[in-house]
Request: fold
Amino acid sequence: MRLTPDAWIFWQHGFFKLNATIVFTWALMAVLTIGAALITRRLATGHERSRWQNLLEIVVTAIVGQIEDVGLKEPRRYLGFLGTLFLFLAAAALATVVPGYEPPTASLSTTAALALCVLVAVPLFGISGQGLGTYLKSYVRPTPIMLPFNLISEVSRTLALAVRLFGNMMSGAMIIAILLSITPFVFPIVMTVLGLLTGMVQAYIFTILAAVYIAAATRKSSIGKAKPKAEPAAAD
Reply:
């Protein structure tokens, strides 16, 4: 029994290894890329649209709505990053119904890479939204003493994102594998359906947390800004 897909080695030459995590990650990205290309190659603007285009519009509209609900202005600006993040995690969970497939998100290396993407994206969006100087000042507010604590917060929440996703996805795969080895096939099927639901929930939570972090980084601080003075009333 493999704890993670990292232990499934397809090819190895010295230090270099080609494991299931790498293979399934690239296969998943290829399927998403090819699928997106096929769906978007004949987009229609009229009333008659294909079912795939309708499905795509529903998914995009739902993601944009969730980003907007988090508090991010101009949600389509963040759609490329957050939408891709959600679709990859959701597809990784849904593909577990394929025999022989192991979700790459059950590997700590994959979840750490996804968390690092969020770690890099947060300051990039923050700088583009507030400017470099204003964003860097947020680390020393309300006092410069908070600088090390704010830096630790950035690292710790990134680690928490990776460990949370890894733990939930790996535990689900492990439970299904154990049940398949000791019980009939009926109960594991129910657990597989539950695992699909758990994977979708984890994809949603991971994406929403990333959106919350970006919203916090792009929100312009009102500290130190003077309140506008009220204009004197006009004389009668």
